[in-house]
Amino acid sequence: MIIPADYEGLRLLCWNRDPTRPVKREEAWALYKRNWRLVWQDTLDDTEVALIKGLETEFGETLLGTDGLPPPWAQGNTPTTEK
Question: Quick check: 55 and 32 in contact, CB under 8 A?
C-alpha cells in the first residue's frame, strides 16, 4: 500500500480524497497515469521517482520523460481540415 501524502506529486493528485489514506499500487498507478500531464516531473524528489519507476516496471508502461496522455476531450480522432 502507498500513502499518497508521502509523495508530493501523488499527494497533489489526491486533491479530492484523503491523501493519508493508503491506496493500492494499482490505484496509485491509475492516478499518475490519468493525471500525468499535471505532474511537474522536474520537482519530483528521488523517492517519488523511484516509486514511479517501480510502478512503470510493474505495469509495463512509461510515464517519466513523457508529457502523459492528452486530456479526455482531446483523445480520439483528430479532425482534419480538407481544402
Answer: yes
> What's the whole-model pTM score?
0.79
Q: How far is CA 29 from CA 23, 32, 53, 75, 79, in A?
A: 10, 5, 11, 20, 31
Backbone angles phi, psi at 31, to 5 degrees: -65, -45
The torsion angles phi and psi of 2, rounded to 5 degrees, stand at -120, 135
Could you write out the three-class secondary structure of 41-57?
HHHCCHHHHHHHHHHHH
Per-residue pLDDT tens digits for 7-32: 999 999 999 999 999 999 999 999 99
